Amino acid sequence: MSSLLEATGISKAFAGIQALSDVNITVDRNERVGLIGPNGAGKTTFFNCLLGVLPIDKGAVWFDGQNLEGLPVSRRARAGIGRTFQRIELFDETTVMEHLLIAERICNGSGAFWKDLLGLGRPRPAEIQRCNEVLELLGLLHLGNEPIETLSLGQGRLVEVGRALMTNPDLLLLDEPSSGLDLEETASLSATLQAIQAERGFSVLLVEHDIELVAEFTERSYVLEFGTLIASGTTAEVLASPAVRAAYLGTYELEA
Q1: What are 37-54's pLDDT values in tens digits?
Q2: Which pTM was predicted?
Q3: Do 72 and 189 have their domain in common?
Q4: Based on the domain organization, do 173 and 127 belong to the same domain?
Q5: Residue 21 vs residues 24, 56, 146, 157, 207: alpha-carbon distances, Å
Q6: Is 200 in contact with 211 (CB distance < 8 Å)?
Q7: Residue 248 — very low, low, confident or very high, per pLDDT cuts 50/70/90?
Q8: Domain limits for position 233
């Protein structure tokens, strides 16, 4: 298998309702791929199946030549899959730096999680250096000691990305990273993500409702409708597809 990620024949049902039906998606190395579709199309369910949060009913997930069947979420993360969430998931009463340190400890299995939460696990110089490197990439180095509660939503989104980057992912799953951001924050997030992806060389699978962000950020895209793939190809081809427009995009016009 040549692709970094190959998800083949992924099917998942809940109480008889088919959430995913025979979905096939690939992501190559250093590639940015979009996964779009209307609400309820199955996009987040697909992410959860990739990560092992949900068991799949049929199909297989191959990552870097390894079949992930039966592996728990933690093992998949350590294999090189990172993720952000649709609803921002940050810990209150912690600093930006502490978020990244906790991710570093969990990924490497060094130190007990409860010690991190209680502030009893003193960070080593190498850990601090790694956190500072990621914060600098994100443009957040000056906020390392700031409480999470003081950040803007856009900055919080970047902290989530930074937390995922601490696992050194080969594939980063971004679940609606622009949710709640204004146009300026979305443009800034897109530019930052592209710069980091180019420098670090990981792949990205992006779930997103902001079609302009998808058009700007991704090279290829897949479209889900009611758990079934209805289109795939270059992002420009997909966004110009009459079937996609009818299912999801309405009168959106892709700029030349």
Answers
A1: 888 889 999 999 999 999
A2: 0.84
A3: yes
A4: no
A5: 9, 11, 45, 31, 18
A6: no
A7: low
A8: 1-80+169-256
